[in-house]
Each structure stands twice: as C-alpha cells, then as structure tokens.
Amino acid sequence: MRILVLGAGVVGTTSAWYLSQAGHQVTVVDRQPVAGNETSFANGGQISVSHAEPWANPHVLPQLLKWLGREDAPLLWRWRADPAQLAWGLRFLVECLPGRTRRNIAAIVAMALYSRRCLRHLRAELGLEYDQLERGILHVYTDRKDFVRASEAARLMRQFGLDRDTVDVDRCLQLEPALADARHLLVGGDYTRSDESGDAHKFTRALAGHAEVAGVVFRRETTIERIATSGGKVAGVVVHNGKAPELLTADAYVVALGSYSPLMLRPIGVRVPVYPAKGYSATLTLADDSHAPSVSLTDDERKLVFSRLGNRLRVAGTAEFNGYNLDLNPVRCQALLDRTRQLFPRLQTVGEPAFWCGLRPATPSNVPLVGRSCFSNLWLNTGHGTLGWTMACGSGAALADMMSGSLPDPDFPFLKC
Questions:
Q1: Where are the alpha helices (DSSP H) in 310-387?
Q2: Running DSSP on this structure, what letter comes out for residue 374?
Q3: What is the pTM of this model?
Q4: pLDDT digits over 158-197, tens only?
Q5: Which of 169, 191, 246, 256 would be a feasible disulfide site paired with 12, CB 3.0-4.6 Å?
Q6: Does the annotation flag 14 for ligand binding?
Q7: Within a 13 Å sphere around the CA of 273, how many CA atoms are in the beta-carbon half?
Q8: Which parts form a coiled-coil structure per UniProt (predicted)?
C-alpha cells in the first residue's frame, strides 16, 4: 500500500520505519525541518516500563488537593473555557477507580515490555547510537506513605511480568552513589534493572535517516491543513509549504500528531480523548569532575526524572494542563533546578541550563490510542502521554502488523471500529 504518515516525532517515525519494513510505500509529512523536533526533542530520556502506573489512580485525588494553588505543583491544572479540557478532566476522574487503574496498568505494561524488546532488536539491527544506557531506572521516595503505596504498585507490575523490585535506602545508594548527600531525604526505592535511558531526539533523527535510505519519503517543513474525506473514507490530506495548497493521496493514512491529533481529527467527526499535558525539562552540561548520577532516576515526590545523556544531565517532568500554551514558566523551570541541587548538592555544571517544554498527548487513562478509526483507511497512533519514548517502537510495530493484515503481538486494547 501507499501510506501517508502524519507526524515525524518518535511515534510517527517508528511507525514509518515498521510500515516500510513490512513492504509498504511510506511518505511522512511534518512541519519541522528535522524529525523528532517537538515533543520528542528534550523529554526525560527514559525507556520506563516501570512508569506504567498512570496519573489517574485512586491515590492521586488527595495529592491534587495538596497541590492546588502551587505554581510549582507536579500536576498543575489551569482552568480554561475549553469543553475539551472539562470532558478530559471528568474522564480522568473515572479512570481513578481501582478496577480501571489495574486494567490500565496491565495494558501499559504489555505494550511497554513489547516496545522495549522492539527497541533492543532495532538498536542491534541498525547499530543505533543515542547516548543509551542500560543501567535500569531507580525510583526514589521521600515520603513513607508514598513508598508503601508504590510497593503495592510494584507487586502488581511484577504480576504482569516486570522486574520492578522494592529496595531499601542502602541499596538505593549502592545503585547510585551520587545520592549519598540526599540520604537523609530518602525512605526507600524501586529498581527496574531492565529499564533503559537515552536521547529520544537523537534516536528519532537516526532512525529517520535509516528510513530514508530504506525508501521512506519525508516531506519536511510542510504544514498539514486538513484531512479530506469522501464516501466514508479519507480522500487525501491538504498540505502546503509556503506555496499553493496540495492534496496528498494514499491508500491508507496514519495520524501520529501527538497532542495535535484531536485538532486534525475533530473536523472530520473523529473525537479522541487526547489533551496536551505540558512537561518541562532542563538540560545541564556536566563538568568533567561532576558528582552526577549515572543511573536514570525518578523522584516520585516531585514527579521528576534524571537521565544521564553522555556529558549532559536531563531533568524533566511535571504536567501542566494549560491547553496548547508553550510558554516557559520561570517558576516551574526553577523548581527543576532547586530539586536537582537538593538531591545532588555537589553537582558541577558548565554554562547555563537549557530549558524546554513540550506537549505530551495525554489520554485520561494513559493508555495510547493505536488502531483503526471509524474511517476504513484512517489509522491512529497517538495519546502516549508521558510514555511516548517508551512505547514508540512497540506501537509502531503493532500498527504495521495490523495495517498489513497480521495480528499484533502484545495483549493490548487496540482500537477497533
């Protein structure tokens, strides 16, 4: 088939790669000059199956009340005159029910484990380099109640096949000696040895290069105006690159536009529960003798992650629900640095931190939308939330299987119309 993929982030690029490897003729359209230049650009850098517990869980409501009014809150909800935000928020509350949380964890773990296997195979096959580290991910806790609750979540994830083990403070310091100065803050941790870290932007650009060699066509710096439909099918996609609008046609179409997916789909009557969750990051260049972590870390209290990317430390996290606003909030930027200094007071850096924010495409359940829409030739691969890097390879491979008429591998609630 001739397939048109909308979006060249990590999800769109992996989709294009696997579709091409399945024998299809693939074209990718994106408004950026290079692949992975928006939400995939400076994220937390974790391949984190251990992050399978969604934001929507029975324990989040007391935390939301605690965070109200705090500009530096890990989850900041800014009320807007936006029906989509309200509808998303109500569905989020429903997904906090215990039974739904358990179901959502099972789905996320299944896709994330499969995706991690796909990534490893792809890395070995193509010799990809993206500052990857295979040293696991260590979650650290500074509140004992949160630690006990997390231990319960870890037990559930082990039932689903993930090696997330609860560890004491001494073991945390053995795994990451750079935490020694913060020992007085810690109460315990969880360690997932099989998790990884790496630069999603470097990965996406490298894979896009291999995809081009394999025959994938990238239409860069091309704006997608709208999807055209006729007779219950997609008839084409109207685009422009500073010239007259052009209609691109194909046999099948894939929407992998992240947070912008609902804006493109709504005019043709396809409504998806995806809303932008703005995440922040700071990238610090490390001095040669810096007392910096080398194991990827997750700070549960502040909802931050710390990933070593070569001579850089990426500090990222939090979620701000403020529509499609991409302004950098200085209070939230400073909160990243303050927590970093609190955990690693001897950290030595060079130059100024590089701040960034991106819009994660969040579903209320954190379960992405992968599969066929109600248009027979329109497919979705979006809504990965905080786990786009983690689930990109798996959702791309599964989508290629489905579009080629094969059954996908993971036990996952794929879309069916």
A1: 330-343
A2: S
A3: 0.96
A4: 999 999 999 999 999 999 999 999 999 999 999 999 999 9
A5: 256
A6: yes
A7: 16
A8: none
